[in-house]
């Protein structure tokens, strides 16, 4: 498992997976409870562990963070999260593979990583404080699920 210290000023990009889980036309989003992106709404997700597939990581993170299970429908997007520090050096670089999925079970629950959760209509994301590009990723995922 990658520690949070290894995530700052990495020597190479890190790999993460997330999932846009849909139930009754709404997507599950979580307000992050820890850095990075603390307090922003995003898809449940996190770092891929050694020996774990991208899809398995997305499903594991969904269940760990929210208690929800899903089935993967397809690959929705790949997003580069690159942040520079004050000197222009790369502070964070994470490649996030986002999947589209259909809800299977669980209503969702909060925890240390997901301080708040909500089932939201995709067009409702515009009114929320989200991670950059979230609405576009969810729109792509919604097309795969419908």
Automatic annotation (TrEMBL):
Keywords: Hydrolase. PROSITE patterns: NUDIX (PS51462), NUDIX_BOX (PS00893). Pfam families: NUDIX. Residues 12-143 form the Nudix hydrolase domain. The keyword Transport does not apply. One of its GO terms (molecular function) is hydrolase activity. Its cofactor is Mg(2+). PANTHER family: ADP-RIBOSE PYROPHOSPHATASE (PTHR43736), DIHYDRONEOPTERIN TRIPHOSPHATE DIPHOSPHATASE (PTHR43736:SF1). This is NUDIX hydrolase. It comes from Methylopila henanensis.
């Amino acid at each position: 498992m990658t520690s949070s210290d290894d995530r700052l000023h990495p020597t190479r990009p890190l790999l993460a997976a997330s999932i846009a889980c849909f139930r009754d036309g709404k997507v599950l989003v979580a307000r992050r409870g820890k850095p990075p992106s603390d307090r922003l709404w995003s898809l449940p997700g996190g770092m891929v562990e050694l020996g774990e597939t991208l899809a398995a990581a997305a499903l594991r993170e969904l269940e760990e963070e929210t208690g929800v299970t899903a089935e993967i429908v397809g690959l929705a997007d790949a997003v580069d999260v690159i942040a520079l520090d004050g000197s222009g050096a790369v502070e964070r670089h994470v490649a996030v593979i986002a999947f589209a999925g259909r809800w299977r079970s669980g209503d969702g629950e909060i925890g240390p990583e997901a301080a708040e959760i909500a089932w939201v209509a995709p067009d409702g994301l515009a009114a929320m404080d989200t991670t950059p590009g979230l609405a576009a990723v969810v729109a792509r995922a919604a097309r795969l699920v419908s």
